[in-house]
Amino acid sequence: MTVILKQAAIDNLDEILKLNKALFDFESQFGHDYNLNWTYSEEGKNYFQKRFESDLSIILVAVDREKIIGYILAFIDSFSYRNTNPICEIENMFLEEQYRSQRIGTMLINEVKNQAKEKGAKKLRVGALAQNSEAIKFYHSLGLEDMNLYLESELL
Hints:
By secondary structure, the protein is of the alpha+beta class.
């Protein structure tokens, strides 16, 4: 296996949508808050289309023998309430299960860090579901630290 990273192209949109749907399906084990139909909805497709059109996006694919087996999508933005700007946020990341724990995720994150720095970002952040302890452990291993904790409840 020789996995390489490539800049994603709009031609990769179908594969990225498929992986994003797999991400939503995977994360549904931690709760039922994600709309599992969003990825292929008009809104979902528009979200990805706009990310591809923006110079503030970083979209990479991991490829094994011409097959896209994972992707990462990050976006750089500034926030008036923050002292340090701009911030690069990893919005989506997914690897097919058989490719996990092989440092491919680390490669994707490191390349996002490199490109984010080149684009002027000062910080990197990512959100993870609180129940997804493996993802949190992975992000901690790469030097990301806990920043915010969101708590939710149903309003009955």
